[in-house]
Amino acid sequence: MKPLRAFAACALVLTYSQTFGGTEPPCAAATTEELNPQRFELALESGYLFGAINPPQDYQIGAEFLTARVRWGVVQRDIWLRGYNQFYISAIAEPIFRGIENHYFGLNLGMRYNFVRPGSRFVPYISGGLGLGWIDSHPEVPGGQGQDFTFNILSAAGISYLVDDHWKISVGALYQHLSNGGQTDPNPSLNLFGPQVGVSYSF
């Protein structure tokens, strides 16, 4: 009888633990996944930028980016800041369709913040970074850049759509500033604004 009592007690404890301890609710598991997507991400992004405050020439530039991102840190509180950070590095190639110069190549390093809404496939984001690059300058032309070496500033805002656990597409607006930091005089900087689209793969 003693072994039977022991078996009955064990069965009762197991039933109690499964009934009241349970497993993590599906919504909690979903929340964890939303804030912990795949750690690494590769993105191809393309934009078309228009010059502003750039006399005497009007600029139109194609902006092509190959970007690597790594997830870093989350905000788990149920507030509008709920989301996660990404550190990124971008390789930049930009044909200049209208303007004094012809092309620009550079690198940019920065941070991106993704705002995660519970249960939503849409993820708004903001990003910003600093970098450097080279432009085929023409200082002899009024309004042309003073030298080939330049610094760049990038900032963007937009929204991504999660197609599945690995793929997402995004649309947004991009601002880019190019300048040599006062290394030449005159130092006519470029300020560029325009739309941007992209596709990314996470792993």
CATH topology of the largest domain: Porin
Residue windows where pLDDT falls under 50 for at least 5 positions: 10-32
> Would you report the number of β strands?
8
Share in helix? 10-25%
Rg computed from alpha carbons, rounded to a whole number of angstroms: 25 Å
Structural class: mainly beta
Span of the ends, CA to CA: 57 Å
CATH architecture of the largest domain: Beta Barrel
In the CATH scheme, the class of the largest domain would be: Mainly Beta
The ordered string of helix (H) and strand (E) elements is HHEEEEEEEE
Total helical segments: 2
Largest sheet: 8 strands, antiparallel, barrel
Molecular shape:
elongated
Strand content: over 45%
Query: Numbering strands along the chain, what is their spatial order in the largest sheet?
Result: 1-2-3-4-5-6-7-8
Mean pLDDT, as a whole number?
Answer: 85
